[in-house]
Give the backbone structure.
Amino acid sequence: MLRPAPMELFSVVILDRDLHEVTEMLVRREALHLVRIKELEDWAQGLELVETGDIQNRCQDIQKRVQELLTNLKVSVDGAQSVEFDSSGLNVDKILQQLTSIEEQLLPKCHEKEKLLAQLKDRQNIMDQLDTLGPADIGSFAKNNYTFLQVIAGKIDSRNLVLLEKGLALLPHVVLPFKNEGIQTKILVMVLKKDASILEKVLAQAAVERIVVPQEALQGPQKAKLEEEIKALDARIAEDGNRFTPELLGLFSQSSAAAVIANAQSYFHKTGRTYLISGWMPKVRSEQIINDIKKIAGERCFLHEERPENVTAIREKKEKVPVLLDNPDLIKPFEMIVTNFGIPEYTSVDPTLFVAISFLIMFGAMFGDVGQGLVLFAAGVILTKQHRSLVSRVGFLMTYCGAAATVFGLLYGDFFGMEGIMPALWMNPFHNMLSFLPIAVGLGIVFISFGIGINIVNAVRAKDISKIIFGKTGLIGGLIYWIGVALAVRYFAFKAGPLPLGWVVLLMGVPVFLLFLKAPLEEIISKRGRMFQEGFLTYFIETVIEVMEIFTGYLANTLSYIRVAAFALAHAGLFLAVFTLADLIKHTVMGSVGSMLIVILGNIFIFVFEGMIVAIQVIRLEYYEFFSKFFEGEGKLYRPIRFGLQS
């Protein structure tokens, strides 16, 4: 629980006859984080990788074509993930043959529908253009099917109407404005056919924009007829959809599975008729996987397991062991907070347990309220029932936070901000402000000390002596912090007088002096060569800055936990404001009803707004004050090959 699940590098050599069955079994078991062994071991450099790019491309093409058909049938591909398939169906040629057969029956109808829809759209565009001419009689004039008259429809700037009339003054004509659109006016202009050429010149001078009436308006299928044909075609497509949808979903599922298997095999190496499969696997799963392989291949296989420290690339720190956090279901939701920051190194401490404890203590302390805690608990329970994994995990976190808020609400005697309904089992932060502040700081000291301890353990596991002793959160840095804490507790908590300056200099001076000896001591330990790489003066200045960072950093980190008390006080303060406003409203025209409404709305506001702010602040304290002491977050996440998730 306090470290990632133990891993081992698993390798198996099998014959080509067992390749497909073994690959499918490994994918179904979801246990193997595949690797290309030539990236880890020098002896494998000459091995040839299996080429599966063509199969993966064909599978992607199949999925795209199936998705196109399902879109035409108005069916989502989401259901394909749950469709079971026969292993024998994972043959790309066979899948492609089935898909082609379905396409030959469905696509002509789909294309015919697209053609009819295009015609319907064109028809609608024509009708829209006719509609711009206004009433039906105007449209009929504009169609211009006259022997002696030239009729045009157009748009003109209203200020140019006088210019148009002036240009046509010597001709028999009619200018009929019929629709205004802002500064433009739609018009019909009629002249004799023999004056058409003069009309064109006048229209150009007056900047008239012609409105072309499509000749298709008088021909082609009518809209109602097209709609009937589309409706009938939809019925035929729907009938085919009922028949082909299950098969299409199956083909999508099979092609997805075939793509995953092809992707898995792209990590394999081959020599003649044999294949070498390698990957990281949790140690607890190895026996199961070995037994399954032996059931398939019998004695036709060679199995090998290797500890991470014996793998060349791991030993030389060129590659990392993938990390699988191994925590009980009770605290597993808190892994989301850890992995959102980063992935722990394989040899480091898994901080999930510490995060679970500290997160709930801080959230409960800031948001302590029995009523609102129970509401948050209930909301979390509802979300845990959702099928989406992320939503469900958030629901579990909300459930825990609601329980923590309820417990602290009992300690504070707080129920929806109302005091006196229940006795405080501990104390109320609002009425004990000066007592609560040092408690919050003490909480910070404990959490920071845990962070220093975890960092030292991580450094010991990594066999990094320099980090153990000289790191900012190593033994010397921790010693400086704890001495400072002890001096502060002696002065503020026990009211003792200031320690003699000589003792302070001695207590603080020794660890600080050891920091200045970092380079000589590292030289003695590691024998790395030149002691001061960039000169003694540069080294001295850097060490002074590092010492200052230790003092200021630890002080800022510790005081940052005052926000735990601050938000506990803010919670009570917000309720005080709500109840004060409600009391004022009670003596107005709105009366008791208005007062109750203020209380309800105030509770909702505090629950949503402050609950969100408190959660953000707790996460900030975790990441910046706690994680910063030990968490580098540069690990690699364990990603086993599985159906629905390619490595």
Summary: The first helix runs from residue 19 to 29. The first strand starts at residue 7 and ends at 15.
